[in-house]
């Protein structure tokens, strides 16, 4: 943590010194912050009911620098408050991105910790990561980052067919701890101006006797005023000596513009199988024993450019579990705030 602080202070010092000298900095700093004021109106965990407060769910601080016409680098730090409702801790920075990019025409090669193809396109079309993660991210079906080598670009002119492939550790932005590696690939089609189709798959050899396979399809209609998306994913978790765990999930969302300063969003995710990792989901833990349907909806008010105030409600409705018990519904009203600096 001290080393990261030294890096941040050094970068800020260099930028400040150049500004005093009247010179243009070689790189660019940018970032954003978002968080909520939340109130847990109802929850399947009775001890969480009426909990309320403020938290930052993400703070980004990014440095980008172009080395020449072909090569560029990025260093991004992330900070956030714990969302487990028990840990008292400050927002500790950690490395989110750290990579070297080579670009040649329509193609790129990226080495280091970089975004995975798992939900990069889906998250951009959803457009409200500040409100909630994509379904795969929320349910811990994968990671937004990994350490490895990636290639991405367009197979034809005008970006009608795009690809993103990656060979990585399979341990997100953390250090490697096993022999297994992860292979990820996505192909995206834009058959018409407003249509997006994507197919994705990965294989993760977690350990010598376990592995994980994920496959998903995503379709969207997007214009300047409205976005509609449909998403389906299946994940198979294999372990030697045990029956395969198969998890299926479907999701639909719509977001659109009501006026120059007001937008709306609504999303529904259906977990067709209980998620055994549900209890570990930060900020909104799910009951791990029951199938669930997740709802989030709200408004996005933008008083000035790059500043958003978003009143919204998240809810989780459960079905009966194998023991015939139906967990209580989770209801969390929130005021989400989000701002960008460049």
The CATH C-level name is Mainly Beta
Poorly predicted parts: 16-21
Strand order of the largest sheet: 1-2-3-4-5-6-7-8-9-10-11-12-13-14-15-16
How many structural domains? 1
Distance between the termini: 24 Å
**Class inferred from helices and paired strands:** mainly beta
Q: Roughly what fraction of the amino acids lie in strands?
A: over 45%
Q: Choose one word for the global shape.
A: globular
CATH topology: Porin
**Number of DSSP E strands:** 16
**Mean pLDDT, nearest integer?**
92
- The number of helical segments is 3
Largest sheet: 16 strands, antiparallel, barrel
Order of helices and strands: HEEEEEHHEEEEEEEEEEE
Explain what this protein looks like in three dimensions:
This protein is mainly β and 342 residues long. It has a single domain (2-341), classed as Beta Barrel (Porin), CATH 2.40.160.10. 9% of the residues lie in helices and 54% in strands. It contains three helices and 16 strands. It has a 16-stranded antiparallel β-barrel. A hairpin with a 4-residue loop joins strand 2 (52-66) and strand 3 (71-79). The chain is globular, with a radius of gyration of 21 Å.
Task: Tell me the layout of helices and strands.
Blueprint: H1 2-20, E1 27-39, E2 52-66, E3 71-79, E4 94-104, E5 107-115, H2 120-126, H3 135-138, E6 145-154, E7 161-168, E8 182-189, E9 195-207, E10 210-222, E11 226-239, E12 245-257, E13 262-271, E14 292-304, E15 307-318, E16 330-341
Antiparallel strand pairs: 1-2, 1-16, 2-3, 3-4, 4-5, 5-6, 6-7, 7-8, 8-9, 9-10, 10-11, 11-12, 12-13, 13-14, 14-15, 15-16
């Amino acid at each position: 943590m001290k080393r990261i602080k030294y890096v941040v202070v050094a970068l800020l010092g260099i930028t400040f010194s150049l500004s005093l000298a009247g010179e243009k900095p070689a790189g660019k700093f940018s970032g954003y912050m978002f968080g909520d004021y939340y109130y847990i109106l109802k929850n399947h965990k009775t001890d969480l009911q009426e909990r309320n407060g403020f938290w930052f769910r993400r703070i980004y601080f990014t440095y980008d620098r172009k080395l020449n016409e072909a090569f560029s680098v990025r260093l991004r730090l992330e900070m956030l408050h714990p969302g487990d409702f028990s840990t008292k801790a400050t927002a500790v920075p950690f490395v989110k991105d750290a990579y070297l990019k080579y670009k040649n025409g329509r193609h790129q090669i990226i080495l280091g910790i970089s975004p995975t193809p798992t939900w990069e396109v889906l998250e951009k079309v959803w457009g409200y990561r500040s409100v909630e993660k994509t379904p795969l991210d929320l349910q811990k079906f994968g990671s937004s980052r990994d350490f490895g080598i990636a290639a991405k670009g367009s197979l034809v002119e005008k970006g009608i067919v795009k690809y993103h492939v990656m060979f990585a550790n399979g341990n997100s932005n953390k250090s490697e701890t096993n022999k297994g590696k992860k292979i990820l690939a996505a192909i995206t089609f834009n058959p018409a101006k407003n249509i997006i189709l994507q197919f994705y798959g990965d294989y993760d050899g977690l350990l010598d006797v376990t592995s994980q396979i994920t496959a998903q399809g995503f379709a969207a209609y997007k214009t300047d005023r409205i976005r509609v998306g449909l998403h389906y994913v299946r994940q198979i978790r294999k372990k030697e000596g045990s029956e395969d765990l198969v998890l299926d999930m479907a999701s639909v969302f719509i977001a659109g513009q009501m006026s120059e300063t007001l937008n709306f969003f609504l999303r529904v995710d259906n977990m067709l199988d209980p998620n055994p990792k549900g209890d570990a989901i930060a900020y909104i833990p799910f009951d791990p024993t029951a199938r669930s349907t997740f709802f989030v909806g709200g408004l996005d008010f933008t008083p000035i450019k790059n500043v958003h105030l978003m009143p919204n409600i998240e809810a989780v409705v459960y079905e009966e579990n194998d023991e015939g018990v139906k967990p209580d519904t989770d209801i969390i009203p929130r005021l989400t705030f989000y701002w960008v600096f460049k």
